[in-house]
Amino acid sequence: MARVPAPARPLLPRRRIDLRRVATADFPLKLTAVLIALTFWVVTFASAPPTEVVREFPGRVAVERPDAIPAGYVLQGQLGDVSVRLKGTEAALANVVASDLHATLNLAVADVHNADPQDVPVFAEVATAGVKVESTAPATVTVRIEPITSRDVAVQARFANNPPTGTFAGDPAINPSQVRVSGAASQVARITAMYATVGFGDAVTDLVQSVQPRAVDASGATIDGLTVDPAVVQLTVPVLPTATTRTVPVVPAVRGAVATGYWITRVTSDPTVVTVRGEGAVLSTIDQVATAPIDVSGLGADRTFQVALLLPADGITIVKAAQATVTVSIAPLTGSRSFPLVAVEATGVGSGFVAEFDPPTISIVVAGPVPALSGITPGQVAATVDATGKGPGTYTVDVVVRTPAGTTAQTVQPTRVTLTIRTR
Predict the structure, then answer these.
(1) Whether this model's pTM surpasses 0.70
(2) Do the domains 243-332 and 149-241 match in fold?
(3) 91-to-48, 57, 86, 128, 129 alpha-carbon distances in Å
(4) Where do runs of H (alpha helix) occur along 273-399?
(5) Superfamily for 149-241?
(6) Which residues does the chain have with pLDDT short of 50?
């Protein structure tokens, strides 16, 4: 009987893959690894810096007048407002409100000795956390930085209306009769008159009022930005019955601006008053007689003018006088100019020695007429100490200051320095 051969056995045993076992084997370890990876992803995503954007603030920001204006100077010009571009996250930008934004001028880069218009950078800041200012538009504002000066100006009465019917205003009395006006040199130089304006009531009584005097220029426009001391004057105007004649002041009609750096110290008229004649109702409306226009443009010295008196109204005549002699007195404005870094020099140092100073520079404020101050160059203001006869050593010495003719050293800081003499 023939043998049937057995089927051939494979050389390697066949393995059976259990998918359930693959998924569940070491399950706690695999779950821990997944949780660690997930936690790492969450931490990485949360710690990533948020995206910043640049956006323009919807409103405009007013440029504030800076507090750090150098002493003795005033800022002239309209500061206006600017638009501001901000940088930050969307969430931070959404929290910005108008009160968080402030803009001012960066006067640290301005030239305080230049009275001409100059462009000064705008510095803006925001108080909201996480937000900063990217830029402003415009980036600069045009202003003028002028020295402050002052002058005494006589106060004149001016009436806003007529006194009651059947009366007229007598000669006004003003106490004090003049005030001191301070401000930017260009503004003070424009002053032609200082008026205290009052209005009459319906009752026939003398007018007594406390009034703030206002400065006006040659065109009659009010000059703002000035400081007046005292700020208020007492004005008394008698209200008198109407008569066929009346005595009123002569008011010189000054026009134009005097030379740069000068001001009108006084304007006098001869006669100072005139008598006018006419119908009573018309006389009650007349409180002065003006002269023909007097042009003082470019005037830099005293001058006398012969000018006609103008009839104030139809039907009114001037008794006797037909013209007036008007004298315009001119004087240079006074002011001050700072020289903060004047090098100290020694005179009389012996041969073979050198001199050193502590501090090496001093600060000098020079006072005098504005035209003279504007022409001073730094080399014309000198500070010296006398080292004559002094040998090597250290000395405390007085500083001698020299300024151009017509000017004086208003302040010197410091007045003494330490002089050290050494051998070369």
Answers:
(1) no
(2) yes
(3) 15, 14, 13, 11, 11
(4) 280-283, 370-374
(5) YbbR-like domain (2.170.120.40)
(6) 1-2
